[in-house]
Amino acid sequence: MSRVVIVGGGISGISTAYYLSRRGIPATLVEKQDRLGGVIHTETVHGCVIESGPDSFIAIKPWALDLINELGLSGEVIGSNDHLRVTYLLRHGRLLPLPDGLMLMVPTKLGPMISTRLLGWPTKIHMGLEMLRKPPRTPMPDRSVADFIRDHYGQETVDYLAEPLLAGVYGGDPEALSVRSVLTRFVELEAKYGSLSRGVLAEMRRAHGATGKAALFRTLKRGLGAMVEAAVAATGDAMARVRGSAETIEPADSGYRVRVDGEWLEAGQVVLAAQAYQAAELVEGLDGELARDLAAVPYSSSTVVSLGYRKAGFPHPLNGFGFLVPKRERGRMMACTWVGTKFAHRAADDYVLLRCFLGGDASTHDSDEIIVAAVRHEIHRIMGVGVEPVFVRVARWPRSMAQYTVGHQDRVKRIEERMARLPGLHLAGNGYHGIGVPDCIRMGRDAAARIARGA
Ligand SMILES: Cc1cc2nc3c(=O)[nH]c(=O)nc-3n(C[C@H](O)[C@H](O)[C@H](O)COP(=O)(O)OP(=O)(O)OC[C@H]3O[C@@H](n4cnc5c(N)ncnc54)[C@H](O)[C@@H]3O)c2cc1C
User: Is the pLDDT of residue 402 over 60?
Assistant: First the structure.
């Protein structure tokens, strides 16, 4: 088989190379950074495992666990400490717990919803009446997440549940995000039951017993960087590494040729496992319309600030997974995870580790001093923590998280239709069918399977 070139050494590109190697197909991986892993980056400082990018993955999507098991790392898998799961939300400057029984922003338990101080009575009544909704008579068009949630539960639920929950995951704006792409299951439940609450309750009844009390999120004791390292090691000689920036792709006798820092690499098959806007630049000369659709997938920027404190004398209880800051109360920080409570093996016994998530382009341009001062100021205001951290790490991720805005599925369909006219060219990455680590692994695995089939 002629050469396979993979552009992008994040988890999408690495899993493509790994699954190709399992089928005996070697590949050349082009990555412009010195290190592999993309936004997955783990560092151990003072015995604390710092995840500067993703810290875990959702367990119900099996592809990350499949890869981890194949790599022989199943003994290292840990779950989130769900018995300690309480997430707080900042309202009027105070941290209030999210009511028990919320499935994302869908209420499923009456008592906690009635007693919560997070939401007012008009919203609680709206939530109760939602249970009476009938299924829509005609299929609903794609809408923004905010329109969808507003319709079911009112504006306060958008402001104080949907917005902070999605900002903490996507760094995104519910007024722009597509409900069909981001909350696909909820759209299906709406079509079937009308009421989301009744739909989620019916699903929970069915799932009860099948899933038991398995942890919602999983990760590795040593951090997700261990999965990247193991996948690279297992791929071995089947992956040749080229350190450089892919600049363009042209048709060639072999199929394609890829220019990397001015040098041409001949390839029979090319996997574009970089961000969609990077893929757009590469295919501009092959298909301008495809490039325009790829470039139209928006990406948000984020910054993760990790702060390590001595545990002795730390002035705030760590009785939960951390807190979310809704836009209406936000300074710079969108969310803060109390890492040692959420996961075992992450914070050393005598340390408190806070992981602060900031969104927006500004956070990726400002200096470390400005960002750290802003974060410490907010931690002081919200948690009353004014003591000096022992260590601080700042990681910037400019334009890294794809935003599935309204119409995303139609755009991806157009992209795939045009890709079908370019045999031997493949896409993987968080711009298309899921932004989480498991989905990226699945897209890499699927690209490898298509190449093996000669598609
Ligand atoms: C801060 C943060 C927290 C997250 N938290 C979670 C989480 O907890 N759980 C979860 O499941 N998901 C999480 N995600 C999402 C998930 O981590 C990412 O969507 C996923 O890791 C993306 O992998 P990727 O390989 O598609 O892209 P990336 O990791 O972005 O890798 C793309 C690679 O392509 C390279 N590249 C780009 N252009 C070129 C070029 N022209 N030539 C050569 N190389 C190029 C880049 O240098 C980069 O290394 C998080 C993301 C971020 C940013």
Answer: yes
| Ligand 1 neighbour 123 (Cβ under 6 A) | no
Task: Tell me, in angstroms, the distance from the centre of ligand 1 to residue 10's CA.
Answer: 5
| Residue 137 token pair | 């008579």
| pTM for this predicted structure | 0.95
Q: Under CATH, what is the fold of the domain 4-38+222-298+404-453?
A: FAD/NAD(P)-binding domain (3.50.50)
Residue 209 has pLDDT above 60, yes or no: no
Give the pLDDT band of residue 213 (cuts 50, 70, 90): low
38 ligand 1 Cβ < 6 A: yes
Question: Which CATH number applies to 101-207?
Answer: 1.10.3110.10
Its sign, for the CA torsion 426, 432, 433, 439, is: positive
Q: Which helix (H) or strand (E) holds 260?
A: strand 255-260
Q: Is 439 in the pocket of ligand 1 (CB under 6 A)?
A: no
Report the nearest-CA residue for atom 14 of ligand 1.
54
pLDDT of 212 strictly over 70: no
Contact 170, 182 (CB under 8 A): yes
Q: What is the mean pLDDT of residues 62-66?
A: 97
Measure the N-to-C terminal CA separation of the chain; round to a whole number of Å.
12
For CATH 3.50.50.60, the residue range(s) in the chain are 4-38+222-298+404-453
Element (H, E) at 18: helix 11-22
Name the token pair of 184.
Answer: 């696909």
In the reported structure, the alpha carbon of residue 388 is separated from the centroid of ligand 1 by a whole-number distance in angstroms of 31
